[in-house]
Amino acid sequence: MNEYSGDRVIEIIAESIKSSERILIGGGAGLSASAGIDYTDTKTFSQLFPRWVEKGYRMQYEFIGFEEWTEGERWAYWATHMNHVFYEFPASPVYKRLHEIVQGKDFYIITSNADGMFIKSGFEPERVFQAQGNYDRLMCMKRCTAETWHTKPYIDRALAAIDHERFSVVDSAIPRCPRCNGKMTVAFRMREDYEEWADRYENWTNGIMDKRLTVMEFGVGFNTPGVIRRPFEYLVYSHDNVFFVRVNRSYVSYANTGHPQIPYEIKNKSISVNGDAADFTNRLHKLIKQDK
Ligand SMILES: [Zn+2]
Fold this sequence. Notes:
Blueprint: H1 7-18, E1 22-27, H2 29-35, H3 42-48, H4 50-54, H5 71-88, H6 93-101, E2 106-111, H7 117-120, E3 128-130, E4 137-140, E5 148-150, H8 151-159, E6 162-163, E7 168-169, E8 184-186, H9 194-206, E9 213-218, H10 229-238, E10 242-248, E11 270-274, H11 277-291
Parallel strand pairs: 1-2, 1-9, 2-3, 9-10, 10-11
Antiparallel strand pairs: 4-5, 4-8, 6-7
Helix pairs in contact: 1-11, 5-8, 6-11
The protein binds zinc ion.
């Protein structure tokens, strides 16, 4: 590092975007965290889940893979979480700025976030690949059918029937499979149109090797590196006319690259920015707007 610093980094990235026909953006948990959806946020957690705070829990991150609850408690948690993140959380200035930055370009988004923030903030659904699905559909946990159902009516009913003393949904309002009456869960990648989403993204990425490309990755960590991080590195490695920007608050060092978080093999066409996505998009957006 230190070859570029501060504003010069943003200028270089803005130049690359201007000279690129195509832009590919990858958004991970860190991007939504910068927009306010943060799984380590203890304050929001205490507002949404006061009963769990009393039991010694502090953040939603602790509930990933959590199984120590009754079906009623599970749905009180999930209905509250999904309602907050997917249906009530407002469009984000961070995402909106990104959308303005890519205007006039042939762009595509891949995200591991299930919160729907790209589309909610103005991105065209046909240019967004939600690689881990989203919260929009429920399925039968036993998979008695491939059919999935819109989440909203189920969680509205569950939310209206939460016993707040126990923070548990009463039995009669727990979402049940319309076919077999079994337990339900979020469909994520099992939704009926997922293959269509995946094919559309693959078709786009298969056709981008011939022209100048800027790839920007925001807040992608190592929980699921096979979704965005590794494919991006391989794409950058394979592309002859590409510039790669990796924005992340926390760094992992690779040796001999000059830029932390950038593998050696792609160091000459990459740059990393150690910072918050909200701050970065703000600066980049200003620069690109002022030059237009
Ligand atoms: Zn079923």
